Amino acid sequence: MKTRDYSLFNHFKTQFELFNDKIMLTTEKEQSYSFYDIDQETARLANYLVGIGAKPGDRVSAQVEKSPQALCLYLACLRAGLVYHPLNPAYSAHELDYFINNAEPAIIVCVTTKFQAMLHLAKSSQTAHILTLDADGTGTLIDNARDCSTTFEGIPRSKNDLAALLYSSGTTGVPKGIKLTHGNLLSNAKSLAQIWQITEEDHLLHCLPTFHVHGLFIALNCVLLSGASMRWLPAFKTHHVLKYLPESTVMMGVPTYYTRLLDDPLFTTDIARNIRLFISGSAPLKEETFTEFKNRTGHCILERYGMTETSINTSNPLEGVRKPGTVGLPLPEVDIRIVDDTGNPLATGEIGNLQVRGPNVFSGYWRMPEKTNEAFTKNRFFDTGDKGQIDADGYVSIVGRTKDLIISGGLNIYPKEIEILIDNLPGIYESAVIGVPHSDFGEAVVAVIVKTKEADLNEDQIITSLKSMIANFKVPKRIIMLEELPRNAMGKVQKNLLRQQYKDLLS
Predict the structure, then answer these.
(1) Residue pLDDT, tens place only, 286-303
(2) DSSP H or E stretch at residue 497
(3) In the CATH hierarchy, which fold is given to the domain comprising 236-401?
(4) Residues of CATH 3.40.50.12780 domain(s) within the chain?
(5) Helices 35-51 + 8-18 axis angle, to 10
């Protein structure tokens, strides 16, 4: 591998060669795949994608279920210099319309049941090829690549070449494509493998989704860069996790996973006897969860902080104090600062706007130069939209969000997107979507609406309408109807008052 080659796959390739015969992953059905198996399948897929015309920099949109073959598709894109564009399998055709037309992929890969819907989108986005890949690993993608060569020289990449394109809707309701480069992902993977001391001796319990940064990059890249192995589960189910925890050394999850484990009396110190590290992220971990988990198992959950635009920024230490309520210290080469609304640095302990700079920070928003310029300061600090503070020991705490974001079960939900859909429904005058505390998901979606005077609507009708337009995790758990929304002197809806008023609604 060339010294200045930043290709993430080419850095993984070292481990593929070193651990050729080692089992990389085992499914819940006890299907095992070695590093050699994954390398061979990845080469076949890379050869096939290139063979049908895909060129470095082309996007490959994938709305597929989690499977070993889906992992190989991700790796094949990295290997061939293609840009991987993962999509939540729960997204409806209404949501996909924007993503596909904006990304303009050369290739779409989807489950068989979505093929007809994707045909229409492919025509409007001028996508040349649609392939299928189902949860059981079958589909036209695998069939067509079966006879392709198992040799494929990884395409060298610079640190600024795109590796992945992920979308995150923003408070305006217009989805923004987040451009993650090979340099971004490689630097973050190296830092995490180092500070968490992930080695070939580790066995990761992987029960995260792979359309999200957490499961796709944070968990997978650490394994592939270190030569570790993993138990590959399609989703988090408490009884499956309890079954496989004794064989594992590392578990990564969202806070919901840990609260569900604590709710099960079978989760004991003995079950977690071989785990050396529990890691939590994607949503705030409550201090009471941290404390209860420690009391139950003797383990201090390691909380870290990241976002789609940056992957991981901070982490509590592997060795040293893990402070509950904090997200730890900045990663190597990552600068964190707290500033006021005019951009002036604040003193230790003061609360302000959290900004981050480092090789992990994304290169910008896809085809949105103005949004990119707004997101960065002149000296290239990225404004995260989070409110934070840094204590005297350098530990960072996230105390709130300036961006109107809801995090439910580790998944980001942007209220404006839902508000636009609600406001377009017959009989709706206006709406405000908020997040309220939820014992299982951390936060849940609630919509507060004002009807038109003549409207005859009920909660079930609105929820039913929304279920046909958006993924289920975004659908409000409750609809509250008011005569008017609370506003400040400038006419802005005071969502903080609504959150306070309905904080116990779902408890």
Answers:
(1) 898 999 999 999 999 999
(2) helix 495-501
(3) Rossmann fold (3.40.50)
(4) 8-184, 236-401
(5) 140
